[in-house]
Amino acid sequence: MSWDDLAAGWERWSQLTAEASAPVDRWFLDALAPAEGQTILDVGAGTGEAAFLIAEHVGPGGRVLVTDGSEAMVDTARLRARRLGLANVETAVMDAERLTLDDASVDAALCRWTLYLLEDPAAALREMARVVRPGGRVAVGVWAQPDENPLVPLVSLDLVRLGLYDPPPASSHSLDLEPALRDAGLTPVRVEEVPFHWRFASAREAWEYVADAGGAVSRVLRGVDDGTREELRAGYAEALAEAGYVAADGSVAVPALAVNGLGVRPAA
Ligand SMILES: C[S@@+](CC[C@H](N)C(=O)[O-])C[C@H]1O[C@@H](n2cnc3c(N)ncnc32)[C@H](O)[C@@H]1O
After folding, report:
1. Beta-carbon contacts of residue 11 (< 8 Å; ≥ 6 apart)
2. CA 227 – ligand 1 centroid, Å
3. Neighbours of 87 (CB within 10 A)
4. Spatial distance between the Cα atoms of 101 and 184, rounded to a whole number of angstroms
5. Residue 43 in 3-state DSSP?
6. In terms of Cα–Cα distance, which of 256, 12, 40, 52 is closest to 142?
7. Closest residue by Cα to residue 67 from 28, 32, 98, 22
8. How much distance in Å is there from the Cα of 117 to the middle of ligand 1?
9. What's the sign of the alpha-carbon dihedral 219, 115, 104, 57?
């Protein structure tokens, strides 16, 4: 699946995403403990949000390699890094399952919200374990099941009802991280759930976010006619209210549950 067509949508909402997912970013920072001068690799980095935070911690002598399989995502990340004045960020198009990096060439690696999208997540984890130096850390983030992450499912249920969408199996958003880290040759250190809320000024803003940055669902929404789109938008606003996610002032807070795992490459 190409992600090039979603890069602009991701960039448009990068600030909102960063604010909502701050607890996840803090977890990654704590898990990776990036130090001055280190080289940190982000795999499937999208527009680079998680990596940019880390860039501040490795200092001018360190490097953050922002990689993604989509050229448009990488281009966006490069421009954003430049705009943010992050001179220690390098970008490259790279397939997560076939990293074009030498063995033991980075100090640590992360992969947030990408593993479960890959054909072979185990291959990507093995690749991360290969390129991290002995003793180096690998931190990965996936999602708990869809009922714990209703933001997109509240739209996709309506799309399914209208015969417009065939959702992937529930298991495809998650991975059992502890055995996955172990099978890749890493020593699992911890696997933890990290709850947070997607926060929007209004139900309309929540809808626009999902329509722009909701992955496969965004693509389906682009293809529907205006009338159907309006019907879906109204249905989404109702579903948010029924679920109790809309406050008296109209603002919206939708719960989310991320699952993060940390592994270490055994010392040689
Ligand atoms: C849901 S986004 C997550 C982006 C980013 N890690 C974040 O947390 O904001 C998934 C990303 O995986 C990338 N991706 C999908 N398949 C890939 C592959 N085989 N190799 C590398 N990146 C891939 C997409 O281009 C997209 O940017």
Report:
1. 47, 76, 80
2. 32
3. 11
4. 17
5. coil
6. 256
7. 98
8. 8
9. positive
Residue 128 is classified by DSSP as H
Q: Tens digits of per-residue pLDDT, 49-107?
A: 899 999 999 999 999 999 999 999 999 999 999 999 999 999 999 999 999 999 999 99
What is the amino acid identity at position 256? A
Which domains are assigned to the chain?
Answer: 4-264 (3.40.50.150)
What does the alpha-carbon distance between residue 152 and residue 126 come to, in Å, rounded to a whole number? 30
As for ligand 1, residues whose beta carbon falls within 6 Å of it are 3, 44-46, 49-50, 68-70, 73, 95-97, 112-114, 117-118
Say how many C-beta atoms besides its own lie within 10 A of residue 206's C-beta. 27
**pTM score, whole prediction:** 0.92
Q: Which of 49, 108, 110, 32 is nearest to 84 (CA)?
A: 49
The strand pair at 63-68 and 132-143 is best described as: unpaired
Q: How far away, in angstroms, is 198 Cα from ligand 1 center?
A: 20
Edge-first strand listing for the sheet containing 39-42: 89-93, 63-68, 39-42, 106-112, 132-143, 252-264, 187-200
Q: How many residues does the chain have?
A: 268
